[in-house]
């Protein structure tokens, strides 16, 4: 048993990790929302493992430091056959399974079935949203809602009123009723009292409380108001009710800062929108992220700071890292490499999982950088772990020069008719 390192394999594995990252990002943004999260995550890690495996295989073909020259001469062809099932298929199954578990409601988390829309209707909306695009955006969100969802609408200026009490959107008739209520609204005069709006929304939530249903709030405003932030948000935070905030055409920095703090303190997300006609995209994005957590994207809503999901993500990435390492060992049909790579993959998965858990923020560009770092950690640490866990070649060329003939004492005809031995690899 020896500790070895193939620097070319390290380099090519990192290149493979980079290529896998690019392909994974394409899959993530093309298929997100189009296929189940479990399938998407399975594909992401399957493609990543395949690319790392291709890099490692090409490197060993060029410089067979880990498997030895006999592997390249006699068994490299088998590795090409093993690579797809050992990497793409195996990691697809592992990723799919772990994402399915990660998507379950654990640790007391509740599925969000109640949504409260808190919409600014102050006099300034005549300028920032003269066409009432905010109501159209709300209607489009409601149109997407599943039949098990309930929605309530609170409108506010310097006062706050429940425009639409909680109603289950069980059919089109219920949705049409809400649309009619929104269409009947006219922009009023008055200022902006966000604290009063949040108080009114919380009061209605408590009146309609259902211990089995999670709740989320969407707050839209184009202004700023004086308020006690702790008093306004403490109950939302205590009940794990995320307040997603939208700032429309905000000129004053104080307005965006206030909405950002409300979102931060309640586990929600803040969106800055410059034009009212963009509101539909924001409302859609908010709705699509409800209970839409994956191992490779930011966790939002009631589970944003949930310890169970933090630990579960790291454990899942550790298992995925170990599976990638095992897949490389299977590809080479080498039990010693499989052990070394699998242990290295688990260590790599620990670091990658911590990076994902700490680094994902919901900002597209930054999240891509975080995933790139995690993917390169998986590729790099696995490939250097043969320096830590020793290996040996599974394959040795037989030298029969000094061995007695197996056909001693037999006739010549018997020697030439003896069935040849199967010399294929039996590494596993």
What are the main properties of this structure?
alpha/beta, elongated, disordered C terminus, six-stranded mixed sheet, 428 residues
Topology diagram in text:
Blueprint: H1 7-31, H2 37-62, H3 69-74, H4 76-102, E1 112-120, H5 125-128, H6 133-144, E2 150-156, E3 160-168, H7 172-183, H8 194-207, E4 214-221, H9 229-238, E5 242-248, H10 253-266, E6 270-273, H11 279-288, H12 307-332, H13 335-359, H14 364-384, H15 412-417
Parallel strand pairs: 1-2, 1-4, 4-5, 5-6
Antiparallel strand pairs: 2-3
Helix pairs in contact: 1-2, 1-14, 2-4, 2-12, 4-12, 6-7, 6-11, 8-9, 9-10, 12-13, 13-14
SS-based class:
alpha/beta
Instruction: Determine Rg (CA atoms, Å).
Output: 29 Å
Strand order of the largest sheet: 3-2-1-4-5-6
Helical run tally = 15
**SSE series:** HHHHEHHEEHHEHEHEHHHHH
From the spread of the alpha carbons, the general shape counts as: elongated
Helicity range = 55-70%
Would you identify the regions where 5 or more consecutive residues have pLDDT less than 50?
A: 396-419, 422-426
Strand content: 5-15%
């Amino acid at each position: 048993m020896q500790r070895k390192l193939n620097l070319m394999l390290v380099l090519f594995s990192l290149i493979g990790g980079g290529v896998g990252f690019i392909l994974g990002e394409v899959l993530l943004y093309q298929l997100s929302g189009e296929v189940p999260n479990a399938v998407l995550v399975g594909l992401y890690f399957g493609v990543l493992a395949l690319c790392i495996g291709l890099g490692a295989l090409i490197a060993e073909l060029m410089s067979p430091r880990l498997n030895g020259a006999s592997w390249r001469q006699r068994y490299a062809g088998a590795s090409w056959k093993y690579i797809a099932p050992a990497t793409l298929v195996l990691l697809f199954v592992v990723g799919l399974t772990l994402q399915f578990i990660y998507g379950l409601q654990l640790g007391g988390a509740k599925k969000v079935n109640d949504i409260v829309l808190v919409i600014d209707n102050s006099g300034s909306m005549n300028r920032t949203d003269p066409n009432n695009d905010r109501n159209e955006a709300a209607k489009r969100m409601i149109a997407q809602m599943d039949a098990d969802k309930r929605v309530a609408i609170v409108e506010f200026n310097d006062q706050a009123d429940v425009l639409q009490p909680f109603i289950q959107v069980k059919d089109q008739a219920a949705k049409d009723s809400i649309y009619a209520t929104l269409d009947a609204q006219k922009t009023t005069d008055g200022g902006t009292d966000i604290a009063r709006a949040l108080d009114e929304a919380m009061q209605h939530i408590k009146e309609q409380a259902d211990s089995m249903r999670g709740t989320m709030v969407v707050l839209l405003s184009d202004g700023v108001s004086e308020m006690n932030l702790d008093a306004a948000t403490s109950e939302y935070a205590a009940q794990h009710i995320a307040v997603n905030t939208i700032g429309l055409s905000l000129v004053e920095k104080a307005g965006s800062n206030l909405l950002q703090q409300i979102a931060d303190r309640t586990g929600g997300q803040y969106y800055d929108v410059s034009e009212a006609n963009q509101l539909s995209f924001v409302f859609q994005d908010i709705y699509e992220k409800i209970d839409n957590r994956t191992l490779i994207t930011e966790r939002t809503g009631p589970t944003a700071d949930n310890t169970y999901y933090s630990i579960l993500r790291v454990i899942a990435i550790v298992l995925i890292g170990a599976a990638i390492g095992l897949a490389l060992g299977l590809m080479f049909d080498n039990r010693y490499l499989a052990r070394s790579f699998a242990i290295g993959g688990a260590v790599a998965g620990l670091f990658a999982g911590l990076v994902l858990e700490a680094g994902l923020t919901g900002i597209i560009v930054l999240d891509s950088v975080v995933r790139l770092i995690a993917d390169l950690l998986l590729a790099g640490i696995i490939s250097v772990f043969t320096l830590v866990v020793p290996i040996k070649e599974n394959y040795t060329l037989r030298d029969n020069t000094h061995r007695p003939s197996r056909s001693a004492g037999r006739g010549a005809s018997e020697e030439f008719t003896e069935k040849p031995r199967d010399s294929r690899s039996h590494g596993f």
